[in-house]
Amino acid sequence: MMQQGKSSSSGSEMQVTWEDQQNINTFSRLTNRFHELEDDIKFAKEKCDNLEDAGNELILSDEEMVRYQIGEVFAHFPREEVETKIEEMKEATFISLEKLQQEKESIVSQMAELKKVLYAKFKDSINLEED
């Protein structure tokens, strides 16, 4: 009789299956990647702004030869060549930014699907929201 009391109290506990644990782990990995992407997107936006500023400063410059930084060294290049390089860098950064934003959108939708599945099973027993 005592054993029945024990089994009925443990029967009310939520059982976490292997599949549930995989979903929780996947959600955690997606959350981490989401935060990495937010940082990468912020950096890419700053880089776009800096390149735009550099291009604007170059337009205002009246010098034919300008200093262009390569790594830790400054080299003199014709202004037109530097303008071309800056435009190419802006395009590459913008394309990279778009890819990052698309990946972020994909991760957000995957996380929303996992939230539905996990909250449907665990209800208030699980917290998937950030503080």
What do these coordinates show?
By secondary structure, the protein is mainly alpha-helical. Helices cover 74% and strands 9% of the residues. It contains three helices and two strands; from the N terminus they run ααββα. The chain has helices at residues 2-11, 18-60, 79-122; strands at residues 65-70, 73-78. The chain has a two-stranded antiparallel sheet with strand order 1-2. A hairpin with a 2-residue loop joins β1 and β2. The radius of gyration is 26 Å and the shape is rod-shaped. The chain starts with a helix and ends in a 9-residue tail after the last helix. The model is unreliable at 1-11 (pLDDT under 50).
What attributes characterize this protein structure?
131 residues; mainly alpha; two-stranded antiparallel sheet; 3 helices; 2 strands; disordered N terminus
Enumerate how many helices there are, as a single number: 3
Shape: rod-shaped
Give me the side-by-side strand order of the main sheet: 1-2
Structure classification: mainly alpha
Q: Strand count, sense and closure of the main sheet?
A: 2 strands, antiparallel
- Report helical residue fraction: over 70%
State the end-to-end CA separation. 45 Å
The percent range for strand residues is 5-15%
> Any low-confidence stretches, pLDDT <50, length ≥5?
1-11
Could you give the order of the helices and strands?
HHEEH
